[in-house]
Structure formats: C-alpha cells, structure tokens
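I am still getting used to backbone structure tokens and would like to learn alongside you. To get us started, please write out a protein record for me. Once you have written the record down, we can walk along the chain together.
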Amino acid sequence: MGHGSATRVARDALVGPFVLECWGDFLLRDALGRIVTPRSRKARALLAYLSSRVDTPVARDRLAFLLWSDRGEVQARASLRQCLHSLHAFSHSTPPLISATRESLTMSGTALVGDTPHDIALLPDAVQHGEDELFRDLHDISEGFDTWLAAERARRRSQLIVTGIAAIEAHLARGQITEARELGDALAAIDPLDETVARAAMRADAQAADMGAIERRFASLQKSLAAELGISPAQETLSLHEQLMTQGYERPHESDQPQEGVAAPSQPATFASSLRPWRNRKIGVVAILAVILIGGLEKWRQERAGLAVATVAIMAQPGAARPEQSAALANALMMDLSRFASANPQLLAIVTPSAGATGGAASDFRVEVNTDIDKGRQRLALGLTGGEASQMLWSATFGASPDGNEADLRQQAAVKLAAVLICAMDARRSAGGAISTETLKLYLGVCDRMQGEPDQTVIAQLEQVTRNAPGFAQGWADLALAEANLGDNGDRPDARALADRARHHLVRARQLDPRLGQIYLAEALLANGASAFAKRLELLDKGIAIDPDYPALHAERALALMRVGRMRDAVASAQTAVEFDPLSPWVRNSLISALAYAGNMARARASLVEIQRLWPDAGSTNEVLYRFNLRYGDPDLALRLLDEAKVDIGSALEEASQRAFLLARKEPTPAHVDAALSAAGDKSPQPFLIQAFGHFGRIDQAYAYLDAQQNVATLSPGTEILFRTHMAEFRRDPRFIGLAAKLGLVGYWKSSGKWPDFCEDPGLRYDCRREAARY
C-alpha cells in the first residue's frame, strides 16, 4: 500500500510471477521488485478485469465493449489492439502473464500474485491513509467498466470483512485487545452498516472495559442504518448491546463463544428451488439481455457463431388508443433493458425507433407497446414481430393487480420481453435460420412460461419444438434442463423417469452444440449418490469455464457451496451471478441468502433495499422481502405481507406453519415455540422442522428426531439449512459430524480438502478434521 509514483522500468525482459497490488492505486511489480505498471489507465483497467478471471478466456469483443462502448465497433476493436500492443511485453514475460488468441485473452494464474484480501495486520494503517479502496485510480474508465468495478469492490470488501472479523476473534482469544479494537475501527470505517463488524468490535470494547466506546459504536451503527437503509439494528445486535451494557463482558466459555461471519442462516427448504433460475442462456428471472442503447451512434455489431448481433426497436403501437402513455411505457421498457448493457454485448442491440426509416422496420425485431384501461386498471400489451415479412411471433398482455398495484406491469413486461428476445436469438443462432416460423412461435410461447418452475406443460411444448426442429440444440437443452429441474425434486413419484429422460436429451443437445452452459447445469442437477456434492461442483465449474457469463451457473454454484458449508465462497459466486444479471430479483435473492448464511446481515439488507429500489412493490420484490424477514428480519413485516396477501406461500399447511414460526420468533414463549414446532412437524418437507429446532435451541430434540434414518434422508436435498448461524449450537454438538457423515458431507470434505467455514468456529467442542477421520 502507499503506492506512490515510482519510476517505471523498461519491460524488454520482464520476469514473473508478477505481484498485483490492487488496494489503493493499481500497482504491478515483477519478480525482481521493479514497478511495471502500465502508464495507460485503459491498459491498467484491462489487466484489472483479467485479474478477476485468471485462467479464464475472456472474449476480445467483451473487452472492447467493456472499455470502449462509446465508440463504434471498428474503432473499439482498433483501440483494444492498440492497448494490447502496449502490453506486448507481458505476453513475452517469463512466464507469460497474458496469452492471446484471435478470439480471446487469458491471464495466467501461475504468473500472478495478488494482495487480496488485505494483510489484516496492515489494514488499520491502510484505512487511516485512505488506501482501502480497490483500484482507487481506475474510476470513470467507461460505464461498463465502472459497473463491473463497483460490483468487484463490493465482492472483495465482503471477503475482507469476513477475514477481518475472524482476525478480531483470534486477537481476543490471545488477549490482544488493542489490536482487536484497532481492527474493529478499521472494518467499521470500511462498512459502517455491517452489524457483524459492530458486534465483534463491541465485544472487543467490552473486553477493554470501555463502556463508553460500546455506547458510541452502537449509537453510530443505529444512526447509519436509519439514515442509509431506514432500518433498526437486528435483534442479535440489540441483545448483545443490552447484555454488554447491563452485565459487562465475561470471556465466553468454549462452548458458547459467538461465531461471527463464519456460518450462516438458511431459508426454509420450501424456497430452495426459488434460488435456482432454471432457464438457460443469460436468464435468471430477468434475462441477461446483452443490450446496447444507441441514439444516433453507429450500431454496435459483433459476430458470434457466424451471425451478426440482432437489433430490436421498441415503440408505441401505431394507432394506440393512449398514444402518449404507450410511448412513455415503450421508452421505459427500452431503458429497463438497456441496464443490461454491461453484462454481455454478444446477442442483441436495442436501437431507437428513429434508426429505421419506417419507425424501426430496419431492425431485425420490432416490439410494439399498447396500454389502455380495463375495468379501472391499467393494461399493457406487447407484440413482437420479425423476419422478412415482419410476421407476428409473440404477444402478451399484462394487467395491474386487483389491489391496483401497477408496479408489476413494467417489471413483468421487462422480464417476459427479455426472456422472449433471448429465446428468439437462441433460435436464430442455434438453428441457423432453419427453424420454421410456426415452430419459432411455439418456442417463443414456451419461453413465455420459462421464468417460474417448469411443469409438464412446458415439457410437452418443448418436446413438440424438438420434434418440429430436431437440429435445434437450444430446444433440446431447454427440454433437458426443465426435466432435470423437475427430476431434482425427490418428492415427485416420476422424478427418476424425468431424470432419465433429461440424461437422454442431454446427449442430443451435446451432439448438436457442446458449448451450451445449461448442459452442465442440467448435469449438475442430475448428479446424485455419495459423490453428489463433489460431482455437482465439478460440473458447475466446467460449465463456468465454458460459459463464464451465464448467471444461472454461478447462482447454482452458490447454492451448491452453501450445501457443503462453504459460505464465504458461496457469497463470491452469488456476487458474480448478480454482476451478470444485475436486475433480477431472484438472482439477487441468491446473494441475499448467501450473505445471510455468511452472517453479513447488513450487506444482505443493503441488497434487499437495492431490489426494492429497482422494482418497488413488484410481486417478486415482495416475495424476496418476505423470505428474508421470515428467517432473519422483522417478523411483523413478514406477517403483514402474509395478511395483505402479497406473497403466495403455496399450501395452507405451509402458511400455517410459517405463521406459527413467525409468532414464535416475535414472542418466543414456551407455548408459542411448542406450537411452531408442532406446526413444522406437520409440514413437508421436514427440514423446516430441523430449522425450527435449531432456531429455538431445541438441540436434543433435533438429534432425537434425526436418530431415524428416514428423517436424515429428508435433509439430503437441503443440507444448506445446517450451516446457518442459528444452527451454530447444533453444529457445536459432537454428534454433528456423525450426522454429516450420514449425509455424505464428511466424505466430500475429506476427499476435496475443502473444509466448511464452521470448522473455524472457536466455540466448537471438537476438532473437525480429527472427528471426521473416524468416518
């Protein structure tokens, strides 16, 4: 840190590995200690981006768009070539830092050493000197790079917070109170909203018997949360503050040492599938639509699979009954879709209607928007036309909800339109134009239904698509993925048959196009047996290597990591999914869940606020809001959402169980807790009961219940529930490793060498590795 402005050396004989100092200003040294930082900010930005994806090829077109999106295609590519020429020495270093092909660039992981995360011992000094910001000198490079950099800073700071909290606990365990307090101050300066940091720092203040510092820190946290997020501290923070101020601080016994930032809370197993955006190319629930909003600039066109990027114009329907309102909604939809511009510019470009002489007729696709009033509520209709004859390919109508909420209209339309346009591009690329118009209409119609959980109707329609177009790789992959999702539900009587059909259809999809990332996603969902944990992660990693910008792979990887207790790694995967699908409520929900599992409630709440900002009062936003507050947040808010029928729980039995659970959280009297456990016991699947046991401290009851092997089996598809923070006492019991062995977790930990975060919990009453060696 403290990079300064040292003179750079000639680079005719660079020697690696290279050391990248990324906190503060970008600084690169070679193995001889010489500063070899490029003079050009764009060159530094290029190296910064590649350093986040070491050993992963990044398409030249993506880099050109990321750094020079304000220029036309030809000039952007020329600028990239010129930039690469300035980095020529790094391609000929020993070993080479960068390898280049005609299509992509790759940074070698063996040739690079980074300073992420911070050396924790140096963090307080770094914060004091203002060098705690990632790539501080790389702001205002381009809109796309700035968006990526903001997400990367958030991801790495999250990692830094987790590491720093563990270091505070280690300092306190060794009696290094001053070091713990200084580190707590530094982490609080980095993120004043993080309650896990505040709690760790308050415990350090208490051990120093500085009650005034505790009160000042708590008051500062209260003020920051209220000002920034409009919330109060979590109950865990309130309870700790009250305990420290009224009872002082006594060093915890080994069995009840608090665990911060290691393990994490879970959502009910009912919601696990909702974290999984099942549709393929670049889609969570809102698609990753690679969009460029062009207003008079030269159209950005790229080649992929031999086809140019398609263009689409969005406009009010000619002759619309409410022309001004329709034009306003058309413009709003165009702006919504343009937000995806930084994700992946390889599929589709949005052009203004004026780009075509006849109101957009020059574009490949045209979307017409019409809005009117039906029975006192606003209604929105979309129509998609395309092809040489400008045939109608798809249409949909959206209505405001019965309670008059019109916020859903725009979000629903953006979701469906993005999904259908991506499907149209998939058909255009995969089938090479061979798919008939009628089959394309059928395929776009089923795309309309692909945003929720797949069902038999979706499967039947996809089967018809593949019969009509047997050479359509995307259709086979969609069919296999839909079947794999349904087959992953062990409660279905036809689950095995669906899984077998999915495997059969994956063979066909792979024959036609082995590069489709959803092939690996489907195969990961189908992995089962003793090696399922390792196999799923292996397949997801392979898929990401092939299709690194596909958010569903990263979101599924986050869930897979949560299921084996690797919570900090799960946060990083979920953050990457959000980077590629920044507006999807459900992809963001996977990040919220991962952050909550990792104990980072302040960041989880901040991400929830971002969803509310993007899609205020939309149905999916209310669903995410409910799921968070059901488990971690305000039980009164969750109950209010239920009372106002703003969320759909499913069965009456599930709703009754969740209401009882929320009442027990709100007023944890013995009678309420017993009622919640009784209601959870009547509910299927049973993992919700295990969560309730853990949440209310009924540890012996939980293990007694799990003595029966059939009850252990109910946990297999939802082992992530075992690693939430409320299950800490459950994990600290020596019986936990025996349960983990029955579930196959111990086998995964031992064979992979990847041990769960909770093994670092100082409150454990056993040694993870030593205990696991018995199985």
